[in-house]
Amino acid sequence: MTPPHKPHPAATKVACVMVGLPARGKTYVARKIARYLAWLGHHSRIFNVGNYRRNAVGAVQPHDFFDPSNPESVAMRKEVASRALEDMLLWFDRAGDAPASGAVLTNSPISPAPNRSLKTESVTGVGRAGPGWVAVYDATNSTAERRRGIYEKCVENGIQVMFIESICDKDDIILANIKEVKLSSPDYAGMDPDKAVEDFVRRISHYSEYYETLDPAECNCQIPFVKVINVGDQVIVNKVKGYLQSRIVYFLMNLNITPKCFYFTRHGESLFNVAGRIGGDADLSPRGQDFARKLPTLITENLGGETQLTVWTSTLKRTIQTAAYLPYTQIQWKQLDELDSGVCDQLTYEEIAEKYPQDFSERDQDKFNYRYHGGESYRDLVQRLEPVIMELERHHERDHSILIVGHQAVLRAIYAYFLNYSLDELPYVKIPLHAVVKLTPKAYGCIEERFTVDVPAVDTHRPSPHPALNAKNKS
Ligand code: ATP
Ligand code: F6P
């Protein structure tokens, strides 16, 4: 059953406070952290001061709106920043009123509702069991004085704070960032791109006039922070304590801003797929073997610029047999083994419904959290897959890509991480047999391509009885 959503009084509440000049990747990092934690089952939400500003005064503002010698705009910017901060404190206090399920984790900017209602903005996984509540306060937070105010408010409210600064002095990266995300921002809608770049550079110089980098002496020498310098060339950690905080530091250390595309496919059709049985360690069916033989050509035809590939399989026969003809380095990961269906292993869905009717219906009611007796839940699977996600985030070798030959549940979890599906939707993602999916992560999203080969296979997807959870699936 779904426990009440109010944070437990002892629940960890962490505010990640972003620090950095414009176009240093703060929003990028904020979204990544929120996504990563929500996928792991924690509650996470971003408070983006830029969105509050756009809501309050309109998106299109010339650079002098950010000029520190302009008293009116200074007051307005202070006002929207404190509104966002108040909302964050309210969220920590009242997040329990948010809907328990169906909350959408979205890549689109989280715009504040005019009445500052908390319900519509929640960026969370279902969060039924995840004990952590993590907010990311996304603004430049460019002075020690302003950070001190945030630190004190959080401490007064029992919230642990962690500052995350992104420093980058590489002009080429900053220019690329401006071109990649700022020109398409509502702030520059319809503007000539050269003029927009020029205006944004002037906006940065206004902030640079008074910007103060984080200093261990801030907040009476108690300030916990991570400084990420030049996209991870150097990472400085100061007074960071706590489980969630450590996970965040670890994640930041692996984060890479030019994540490479990667490919995945399910194994070829297996004898168990044909028989409608779940789990097991069956061989490929004749059609599955045909897919395995055709896979090398399908891959080389669609490799794009990548000249090298590493193939990751599980330790189960059906993925190893599927990868058998691929002329690339292969690595077997135990973590990539299919969801363990415990006592239901090797049964058909009909047999499960007959032998374990209550379990069968409980699983339909809450598939993400349902754990097979003696086996795993999707929630367990996500925890097991964390190192795989970390490796995919970290991987950035030039001309080199990864192909995962995996299983239905495992690939659903990986796909849901990159495509921002909610944890309720995750167990229903449709990943057909005999299709290769290529994912190319971008600054604020992910491009998906699918390549198929003409080898028929059974359909192993059982849709949810709740149609909304199937809605995002491609036909
Ligand atoms: P603003 O203050 O205007 O909101 P921002 O600091 O939030 O700017 P983003 O909008 O997040 O900047 O910029 C996104 C771009 O930053 C992407 O192109 C991304 O690749 C890049 N990026 C991500 N992380 C870093 C980093 N650590 N250092 C520099 N650039 C980064
Ligand atoms: O200039 C970039 C920006 O993200 C604006 O969109 C936003 O209004 C501002 O920074 C928030 O930071 P600050 O609180 O320093 O004004």
From TrEMBL:
Active site (catalytic residues): H267, E354
Residues given in the record as substrate binding sites: R266, H267, G268, E269, S270, L271, F272, N273, R318
Cross-referenced CDD domains: HP_PGM_like
Superkingdom in the source lineage: Eukaryota
Gene Ontology CC annotations of this record: cytosol
Domain 6-phosphofructo-2-kinase: 10-94, 132-259
SMART domains (alphabetical): PGAM
Single GO MF annotation: ATP binding
Segment forming the signal sequence: none
Listed InterPro entries: 6Pfruct_kin (IPR003094), 6Phosfructo_kin (IPR013079), His_Pase_superF_clade-1 (IPR013078), His_PPase_superfam (IPR029033), P-loop_NTPase (IPR027417)
EC number(s) per entry: 3.1.3.46
GO biological process: fructose 2,6-bisphosphate metabolic process; fructose metabolic process; glucose metabolic process
Enzyme class, first EC level, given as a word: hydrolase
Keywords associated with the record: ATP-binding, Hydrolase, Nucleotide-binding
Family label: In the C-terminal section; belongs to the phosphoglycerate mutase family.
Protein name as it appears in the record: fructose-2,6-bisphosphate 2-phosphatase
Species this protein is from: Spizellomyces punctatus (strain DAOM BR117)
